Amino acid sequence: MWLKQLSVLNFKNYSESSLEFLPEVNAFTGNNGVGKTNLLDAIHYLSLCKSYFNPIDSQHIKSGNDWFMVQGEFDKESISDFISCSLKKNQKKQFKKNKKDYPRLADHIGLFPLVMISPNDSIIVTDGSEERRKFVDNVISQTDNKYLDTLIIYNKFLAQRNSLLKQARQTSVLDLGLIEILNFQLEEVGNIIFQKRRSFMEEFQSEFDRHYQFLTEDAESVHLHYESPLMADSFLNILEKNLERDRIQIGRA
Known about the structure:
This protein is α+β, with helices and mostly antiparallel strands. The chain has helices spanning 36-48, 123-126, 129-143, 145-171, 176-216, 235-241, 243-252, and strands at residues 2-11, 14-20, 67-76, 79-88, 94-97, 100-101. Strands 2-1-3-4-5-6 form a six-stranded antiparallel β-sheet, covered by helices on one side. A hairpin with a 2-residue loop joins β5 and β6 (100-101). The chain is globular, with a radius of gyration of 22 Å. The mean pLDDT is 92.
């Protein structure tokens, strides 16, 4: 699979631009600030329905305009797929494959896999565990659509639980029955996510070792170790033990 053509309208610093690519290696060259990275971000939109750098879609509309569009043609075994993403200010983002709207953006993830590398990726190592979870989730979601659905459901349940805890701080009343239901729902999908992440790290370790050995010419070795509280306790027990802490911390947020 490869990207044959890319066009952008009112996207970031581009009023209009179209490019054609070769199935081999392609490279953008130019002075700083001319928009090379913006073109890469446009490709990221076509694959993952969003910007790599900024999650606020409206901020990618070129100044002085009220909409943008990114279009691309992908070649998969000599069959072309036309992808388009457009946004008007104060309206919902539209994403289409071969001129047909997706019922859900999640249905598009993984159809056109993409790897984006930037200097900012150092935060995977230097920052907290949240950045590493995002990296793992992004990779798995592009190869396992069921995992992405599970992740969406988990985040939905978590948002409901957090909302309930915030309300409890305001009213001084916590519906423990509803919290218990949400805890059970979180445990069910949370265990699936945990197992998928652990399996991924086991497979990723060998690939990581191989590439690291190549880069260092076998001068040193590095090992990845996946840690989770679920290795020592059940999901439900962890939620119940941390309920009071969550009630205080989330209630203040």
